[in-house]
Write a structure and sequence with these properties.
This protein is mainly alpha-helical. The chain is built from five helices and two strands; from the N terminus they run H-E-H-H-H-E-H. It has a domain of 71 residues. Helix content is 77%, strand content 3%. It has a two-stranded antiparallel sheet.
C-alpha cells in the first residue's frame, strides 16, 4: 500500500510545524482505541498542543505521520497548503484502503475457489478408488466362480475319463474272455 504522505508532503508539513513550533496547532483524539503498548506511548505526548511540547513530551515526527494516518491527530491551521495536503492524503489513504480490501477479497475468493477445486478433485479421486475397489472385488468373485467352474469341469472330465477307462477295461476283458472261450 502507498504511504499516507509522500516525501514532499512530509517535508512541507515538517517545515510548517518547525516554523510554528510555539503555536497551538496539534489536536489529538481523546480516548483512542489502541493496543496497550501504543496507548501508553500515545498518552505520553497526546496532551501536547504545540510542536515544541510534542517533542518535549517524547513525540517524534514519525508519530505525527502515524497519528495523521490513523485520524488520531488534526493540525488546526488556516494554512490552505497544509489543510489541502492532509485532506488529499486522507482521501488517498481511504482509496488505498478500499483498494486493499478489494484485493484481499479477490485473493480470498481465489483461495476459496482453489480449495473447492482441490476438494472436487479429491472427491473424484475417492470415487475412482471406490470404483476400482468394486471392480477388484467383482474380478475376485468372477475368478472364484471361474475356479469353481473349472473344478466342476475337471471333476466331470475325470469321471468321463474314468468311465472311458472302465469301459475300455471292460471291453478288453470281454475280448480276452471271448478269446479264451473260443
Amino acid at each position: 500500500m502507498a504511504f499516507y504522505l509522500n516525501k514532499d508532503e512530509k517535508v512541507i508539513i515538517k517545515k510548517y510545524l518547525k516554523d510554528n513550533y510555539g503555536t497551538e496547532l496539534l489536536v489529538f483524539v481523546k480516548n483512542p482505541k489502541l493496543s496497550e503498548k501504543k496507548l501508553k506511548r500515545f498518552l505520553e505526548y497526546s496532551d501536547s498542543k504545540t510542536f515544541d511540547e510534542f517533542t518535549d513530551n517524547g513525540g517524534n515526527i514519525s508519530n505525527i505521520w502515524n497519528n495523521l494516518k490513523d485520524n488520531l491527530l488534526q493540525i488546526n491551521t488556516d494554512d490552505a497548503v497544509i489543510n489541502n495536503i492532509t485532506a488529499v492524503a486522507s482521501k488517498r489513504y481511504q482509496q488505498n484502503l478500499k483498494a486493499a480490501k478489494v484485493l484481499a477479497a479477490i485473493a480470498l475468493k481465489e483461495k476459496a475457489e482453489k480449495k473447492l477445486e482441490i476438494y472436487k478433485d479429491e472427491q473424484k479421486a475417492k470415487e475412482s478408488i471406490r470404483a476400482a475397489r468394486k471392480l477388484a472385488v467383482q474380478i475376485e468373485k468372477d475368478t472364484r466362480r471361474s475356479k469353481k467352474n473349472m473344478r466342476k469341469i475337471l471333476k466331470v472330465l475325470v469321471k468321463i475319463h474314468e468311465k472311458k477307462i472302465a469301459a475300455a477295461a471292460k471291453a478288453s476283458k470281454k475280448k480276452t474272455q471271448k478269446k479264451k472261450v473260443h
